Amino acid sequence: MWTLRSLLGLRCAAGRAMSQGPTRRPRPPKDPLRHLRTREKRGPSWVPGGPNTVYLQVVAAGGRDAGAALYVFSEFNRYLFNCGEGIQRLMQEHKLKVSRLDNIFLTRMHWSNVGGLCGMILTLKETGVPKCVLSGPPQLEKYLEAIKIFSGPLKGIDLAVRPHSAPEYQDETMTVFQVPVYSEQVNGKQQLARSAERLSPEPSPDPGPAEGEQYLVDGVGQKMHGRDPSLVVAFVCKLHMKKGNFLVLKAKELGLPVGTAAIAPIIAAVKDGKSITFEGREILPEEICTAPDPRVTFVVVECPDEGFIQPLCENATFRSFQGKAEAPVALVVHMTPEHVLLDSRYQQWMERFGPDTQHLVLNEHCESVHNLRSHKIQTQLSLIHPGIFPPLASLRPQEGGLAPCVPLVRGQCLLKYQLRPRREWQRDAIMTCDPEEFIAEALELPNFQESVQEYRKTVQDGPAPAEKRSRYPEVVFLGTGSAIPMKIRNVSSTLINISSDASLLLDCGEGTFGQLCRHYGDEVDQLLGTLAAVFVSHLHADHHTGLLNILLQRERALVSLGKPCHPLLVVAPTQLRAWLQQYHTQCQPLLHHVSIIPAKCLQKGAEVSNPKVERLISLLLETCGLEEFQTCLVRHCKHAFGCALVHTSGWKVVYSGDTMPCEALVQMGKDATLLIHEATLEDGLEEEAVEKTHSTTSQAIGVGMRMNAGFIVLNHFSQRYAKIPLFSPDFNEKVGIAFDHMKVRDRWGRAGGVGGAETLSIHAQVARLGPLPSTTGTGPSIESLLEAPSVPRVTSSELLHKLGRQCPPPVWSSWACPHHWAWGCPGSARLGLT
Ligand SMILES: *[C@@H]1O[C@H](CO)[C@@H](O)[C@H](O)[C@H]1NC(C)=O
Ligand SMILES: *[C@@H]1O[C@H](CO)[C@@H](O)[C@H](O)[C@H]1NC(C)=O
Ligand SMILES: *[C@@H]1O[C@H](CO)[C@@H](O)[C@H](O)[C@H]1NC(C)=O
Ligand SMILES: [Zn+2]
Ligand SMILES: [Zn+2]
């Protein structure tokens, strides 16, 4: 049997990888105060000499799955403009250093700009950044307060908000002016929002506290609450002049007293552009000094809709930078949707900056691929089994109808514009996603094609497909890692496709919407249209922070599909409400998008006295075609639930959430068709599993066996396993490992042409090996996936290295700890994982 041998091989390899895992100490932070010290040395009277090197770099190009974000670098400072969901992760992936990121600028209080702040702040804190200032809309202050409440004390990092009304900000690199722009359509917009609310069948079906519904009555109360959708803040950033360099050799030639104290005033004078008189002779500054680099300016502006066009075009501050300005505008960054960009008033405004100004557009028409690696892996895997590993959708940039009247460049991830030393576009860091190349690379592997054929044959030779009873449930794993998103695994989220017009999500970690975009591409709106419910197992950030975006995007999708907007059913611990409420009150209205069914009301034998909740429960069962939706408390933190869904057609899917082995789950899940169970840790780490209230691989399998589950898929792997989790001797043909974007079907389904009860076990064989090399690079590769049980062959490590490049171990292993938005989670500060 190949299994034993390769399992043994694997265990060693992985064991080696692991030995760094548990024992690895958090890296000592690099001296974070280094640059502050330098500043102090210079003393308060130090006059900025202007930076030598400054560039802007696109972190996220504005596509739907990643928002728009821009990183600005100088040798003195780092800045970030906007920080949507997943930005922290993208920066980490692309090695954009956050160690001096002490200023974050936000153009608008919208989830697409602030959704990643919480993670970013924790990362900054972890890196040792002593202070970070957020500039932008005044609501930021409240938002920051909310973050502090939820993420626990943020000791060690000083956070402040610089509202747009504050005086301009100045540091070693530049001076930043905040320009508020108020929409002229405020009233119209509110009308729209209200009519959308009227469309919903039940205006406030939420059984929550009355304050939660105040917004319905009180449309104008928005401003009172500090939430003001009519404001965007633009940033005008003026680089300091860079003084010329003193030419020592020339000075010596002229006989100047180089090397003595007398030279200092001379240097100062010529750097300031003044002539000097030396021994009766006038010396011009250009004789001993290079020309200064003048001030240049860049502008970052978001213009989210037509209502902002006129105010923006008329704004006096911008006018003063258009045409002949003291500091010419080198670049304007437009975080502006295409339809606004096409408006003739907007185009004229762009033109007014003059022919020497470059324009960078970050919007939905930009290239959407921000992570080559997962595209590459998925492209290669789909060669083996396109049903289980469907190719990812790359939302192709649409052809813009834009006739550029100005020098205009569309954003791409990592595209740079350098302002100093030379003004130019730099494209060397941009990645190109070429599926052909990925395929060619795989095909070049020795024996690859033969192995694929052999595998396909094994699959075909399998038992004949059973009668085609049902294509459901179809399970799409969107996030299969724990704690924080990493390169290979994003955080918890699983989609259950129940019928052609109903689906539901089990958990909803940060970035869930982005994963849906990458999986479904342009179909994502249709999918959101069928989304009937979300189950949130517990309130740890890796399970629920993606919910806000799902709510907002779903509403957008329903509007664009012309469907009525009804609230999304969310089964969750009641504590979720407080979190939603906070965001609703301070930032963006969204409570009308959601109806919460307290998870405790679905426990066996629970008495539901609230008729509203009762109604919601019947609605839930009806829309999903379920006979039963049951929850039970699991052993993780306070208010943590698992669930079991029993469909009218007979299938039963059970989901553990995060938990230690749990008897209640075993009872609830009896005879499940499919169990999705967490397996955060490898076997041998039972103690750590208890401490962190998670399960090991064998414990999870044990639960499934006792449950008599038809099939078990493991997920929620610790991110310390950079690639694949460890295998346990308990693995059998009923056990599979989940990967992001893996799709499996019910045993009667016909995924990828495989039928009968074997479908899932073939998935298991694929999944069991794992497409991804382990941390040391000696784990199984895509190639070894093809080793069907009948082909006992150990892959040479040379091959293994081919596809699997080294992946750095997770940097923030201790990061997850404060990332708990813990609600009375016992000892949560001790828990390293969620
Ligand atoms: C996880 O999410 C990030 C965006 O946050 C994305 O770039 C990446 O491709 C995703 N990874 C996988 C394996 O889907
Ligand atoms: C234009 O800018 C000024 C200051 O920069 C600001 O006070 C004003 O409100 C802006 N005008 C509009 C119409 O938004
Ligand atoms: C659910 O499955 C059906 C049948 O395979 C398919 O048509 C539909 O698009 C799927 N929906 C989702 C959300 O995947
Ligand atoms: Zn978790
Ligand atoms: Zn958890």
TrEMBL record:
It is found in: Mitochondrion matrix, Mitochondrion nucleoid; Nucleus. It is an enzyme of class 3 (hydrolase). Its EC number is 3.1.26.11. InterPro entries: RibonucZ/Hydroxyglut_hydro, RNZ2-like, tRNase_Z_dom. Keywords: Endonuclease, Hydrolase, Metal-binding, Mitochondrion, Mitochondrion nucleoid, Nuclease, Nucleus, Phosphoprotein, Signal, Transit peptide, tRNA processing, Zinc. Its main location: mitochondrion. Homodimer. Interacts with PTCD1. Belongs to the RNase Z family. This is Zinc phosphodiesterase ELAC protein 2. It comes from Monodon monoceros. The gene is ELAC2.
